[in-house]
UniProtKB/TrEMBL annotation:
Underlying gene: rpmH
Organism: Candidatus Uhrbacteria bacterium RIFCSPLOWO2_01_FULL_47_25
Pfam families, alphabetized: Ribosomal_L34
Top-level division of the source organism's lineage: Bacteria
Molecular function in Gene Ontology: structural constituent of ribosome
Listed InterPro entries: Ribosomal_bL34
Any single GO BP term: translation
Region ranges (Disordered): 1-46
Alphabetical UniProt keywords: Ribonucleoprotein, Ribosomal protein
Similarity comment: Belongs to the bacterial ribosomal protein bL34 family.
UniProt-recorded name of the protein: Large ribosomal subunit protein bL34
GO cellular component: ribonucleoprotein complex; ribosome
Amino acid sequence: MPKRTYQPKKHYRKRVHGWRIRRRSAGGRRVLKNRQQKGRKRITPS
């Protein structure tokens, strides 16, 4: 039986999906804006 694909790591999570990474690119800023407008409790999963 193969192992599960989700092996969580805090460092990876922050580095890939974090606030600072999202702020860096235009696409990331768009994601933050859309999630904020939608009223998400958590804008980034970090």
